[in-house]
Amino acid sequence: MKIIFKSIFFIFLFFIFSGSSFADSQVLTLDQSIKIALERNTQVLSAREKLNASGARFNQALGSVLPSISLSSSFGKSYQQPLSLTIPGMTTPITTSPDEAAEMTTYSFSLRQPVFTGGKLLLGIKITNNSYLAALQDFKKVKNDVIYNVVSGYYEYLKSKKMVEVVNSSMIALKKHLKQVELFYNSGISTQVDLLRTQTELANMRNTQIQVETGLQLASISFNSLLGKDISSDIFLSSDAPQTFEGFASYSGLLEKAYNNRPDWISFKLGKEIAEDTVGLNTGNLLPNIFLVGSTGRTVTNYASSNTKYDLGSWNLLLSGSWVLFDGFVNVNKIAEAKATAQSLKEQEKSLKDAIALDLKAAYLNFGSAKERLSAAEYAKSLAEKTLKYAELNFVSNVGTNLSVLDAESALLQAQANYWTALYDIRIAKAKIDKAVGISGY
Known about the structure:
With 442 residues, the protein is α+β, with helices and mostly antiparallel strands. The chain has 2 domains: 321 residues, Outer membrane efflux proteins (OEP) (Up-down Bundle); 81 residues, Single Sheet (Outer membrane efflux proteins (OEP)), CATH 2.20.200. 66% of the residues lie in helices and 14% in strands. The protein is built from 9 helices and 6 strands, in the order H-H-H-E-E-E-E-H-H-H-H-E-E-H-H. The strands form 2 sheets. It has a 4-stranded antiparallel β-sheet, with no helix packed on it. Strands 2-3 form a two-stranded antiparallel sheet. The longest helix has 67 residues.
């Protein structure tokens, strides 16, 4: 009975740890990878908090046009030496209050409402609103950058993994061919040169194998870092993806779309508008500020020893104004600074538009180039497979040379590498166009 119980217990533990291992090694799709990166990436989290901070500043600006209302109260002891008045004909002087400390309680309610500030409040609201919109575009840009990096890292890893598979397959074929050469050499059919040449090719292939395996490890580390995971974690990515690719609209159409969607371009235009409004904001400092100020309150004073109590109420409603007539030319220079900043941004506009056009053009050309390379590589791969097949048959039949087999094997390896490189480069180029246009595609 104990043996049965122990067996059940160990089986239970096995399923627990197997389930945990399976959860850790689940196959990730591209969409899942992007979702994980957006949830964990520190740049995304930082940009989100900056957006929240900008939203809070906008709400502060909105609150500045509303009245400021406050309540206050105090309680304690107060002493003031009374004023004595002596009137002719009276033996006792008149005092304004008992000569003792009084218990004093005060209550007050006050209101302060801006009436005129030279337009600074409205401009302040506009500036903080544009700052919030700019922060929103910065947040979108960070997300787009992270998405592109994940897409690129995802396909770079799959490309590296496929390169390892291609090289390993070529190693197996070369080892098989080496056995055939050794057999022919021992039979006196092949020369020692053939044997040495094949062994050399195998050694060179091993060198290539080490390089692609290292490349796969580096791609794994990079991708884990993008997802915020331990860099030594195992990666299991889904390689399911369409083998056909739709084309994009014309370059001019994409460029127009980029100018309407690129977060950095929209943010730049908002920054230029903020700079222009800052000129008006500083100009408003040359005008007076007028506020409506009102208050009401009550003061209760109690002189316990003399049993005297005063309960006095008060209120006031005033228009309060202030006007800085001279500040040592500080504000004048602030206006000059704001104008220079606005002009500087105008000068940068053309260079930024050209940079966007160049970025999109490069991505557009790379996508077209990758499609053409894929078509050429697919045809070359088909030819290389046939060439190797015939070369091996000819060699086995002793009508072909060892060199022709090695050349065919090398050509097939190159064709397969070109094919898979072009296939994944198309997907990366498509993501690059999405990023250049200002859309994520996910």
